[in-house]
Amino acid sequence: MKTNKQKILDSLLFTDVVINNQELLQDLIDRGANVNAQTEYGGTLLREHAYIFCEYDGIHPSVKLLIKNSIDLNATGDSSTNILFPLLDYMSGEEKVHPLFDYLIENGSDLFCKDSEGNTLLHFTPLFLIDRLLAEGLDINAKNENNQVPLFFNDNLDRIKKLIQAGADVHAVNDYGETILDKNANNVNSFEYLLDLGLDPFKSTKTTSSSEEITLIRFLYSNTYPRDDETKKKVINLAKRMIAMLDTSLEK
Fold it and tell me: What does the pLDDT read at residue 162?
């Protein structure tokens, strides 16, 4: 069991004042504070301060200091993810690679880490990082615990095109019986692109008694109120195409 002094030393590390002041931070470490300590909820030092490190322009000096003092870059705590996951989320909003990303990898952060649901970084990666992660060896068809591949995440058309061009399995089906068409029912442009690839809107294997779960009907419900006349016209044309496919796709 930690002594009261040890608890205080470790707790001080988690304050923003300390993490932003390298003199205080090093002093606490010299006094015995554990850089690999966790909060009572399983939060790690890097995860708890990810927002500070991400918003810093460059590599935060405290990250360098913590690495120098042997912090575990792959500690996950109760979050089941290392700091690369929140950093990836931040970079998605900024639309550029943060220098901290490369620095952490160079110092041992695991690119092949997974979250508590079995998702890899590639499941969430923004468009500009896909090639980089694939070059590092991440599996473009890695499945999470629900058998969902990266293609199932995010309906951004450019991202979908990039993943498919790189070898993503367009015929993947998750544990709920959903196809990539199902996952893109609310994005008219992405749905049209996938339909143009020859995907069958009647191949969903989702087990349900509700007709709403049929891909065609899900698409129509998802686009009841198109944002403009052009989109409305596209929805109607896509509906006509799929209705015309009924005879060849389904048994009478």
Answer: 96
Return the amino acid letter for 171.
Answer: H
Q: What is the pTM of this model?
A: 0.86
Q: Which of 152, 150, 160, 247 is nearest to 202 (CA)?
A: 247
The answer, yes or no, to whether residue 252 has pLDDT greater than 50, is no
Non-local (6+) Cβ contacts of 47 within 8 A are 76, 77, 79, 81, 82, 83, 86
Question: What are the structural domains, with CATH classification, of the chain?
Answer: 1-81+97-109 (1.25.40.20), 114-175 (1.25.40.20), 177-252 (no CATH)
The answer for residues whose C-beta is within 8 angstroms of residue 15's C-beta and 6 or more apart is none
Helices (H), 140-179: 157-165
211 has a pLDDT exceeding 60: no
- Give residue 94's pLDDT band: very low, low, confident or very high (50, 70, 90): confident
